[in-house]
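haha ok so turns out i had the wrong file open the whole time. this is the CORRECT one, sorry everyone. sequence first:
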Amino acid sequence: MSGLETCEGMVEKLLPGGEALVRVDGLSVLVSNGVPGDLLQLEMQGKRRGVLRAEIKSVTKPSAQRVQSPCAVAGACGGCALQCISREQQALEKSNWVRDAFNRVMDEHTVWMAVDSIEQHYRRRVRWFVGEDEQGKFLGFYAPASHQAVRHQHCMVVTAELNAMRLLLEEHVDLDGVVSVQAVQLDDGMHVIVEADHRPEAIPADYMDVMGTLSVQWWWRDEHHITRPLQKPVCYFHDILPAAGKAVQLTVGPDDFVQGQREGNRALIGQIQAWAGPVHRIADLFCGIGNLSLPLAAATGAEVFGAELNAASVRAASSNAGVIGVKAKFVVANLFETFDQEPYIGADVLILDPPRRGAKRLCNQMGRLLPKKIIMVSCDVAAGARDAAILKQQGYCLKVLRGLDLFPFAGHVEAMSLWEKR
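then structure:
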């Protein structure tokens, strides 16, 4: 196929991440924005990362599953991979990704909870990149496999406040020298972080409260990834999270990780509390700011022992524990290397929420850690399935598996799993 520029093929299925698999002359080709059952005219793009890829030149015969995308730039923007199928079909596809990945560790007693196709929820965390066209500089999302930003008037998957903030930035902030802008919307305010090689000009005071009742704290992140406030006194904002019928407030800083969707994050936390039951000792590895463990501890009176590589997150977790009255000890540790495991041995529940690479090393050490229950949150289903196979080898049984969609229209799905010692 090396000399073939155009070809025709039918989409077989969607892969985790949202790319479509097409068979062409016995070869596997990946394309964006394909729908299972589509007959496509393709323009070959060659190999990237060892895989043949193509772009859709035209849809010869659309699948019965194909729908008109509600986004005007769906074909160009790389922000959403599943714009051309319905919400119900998205839920089915994402459920299949999770179940297929974990299938070999499930048995007849495993409870399966498919992705729920609920009403639209919106992302509260974004990163816009600076682009330039004939109209000037703008903020947008990258096109697929590209570092070219795509201009858009309105993004259908982010909150109204974030859409308003982008317009404000484009109109009133000098984007020369700016690489990108990050923003995270919390319950009582919004952090906006301007990433640039020089300190941005001060944001005009007239625009500080343009978001109405939502306060804004402006930040500058330099080329050394140091984040500094652009206004003082600094505003501190919070996530309000469920804790068994009550609510707790966790402070979230500009460098702290939070889940990209508020409602999805609360669903994660609520599910963990339902699965954990009564507990006295919680081990929280990859703890972040205590997003998952501190509400559980507040609900149960348990003590938390947590670890995380990011020192700022550990400080935030410790501070949050003190504010809400939870007994906890959080430490800085590289969980991909050797660390002191003693505080985490024999916990009633061990919460694992690793990054995309998963927690292979930790899962291989469960024979020493010996928690009564493990609750694992996997943001990459392939890494999660690999870790799950290790947990099974370590003598744990998969009791419940749940797919959770925190990013509607994106090719991303969370896998939540509950494990108990056999």
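The first strand starts at residue 6 and ends at 14.
again sry for the mixup
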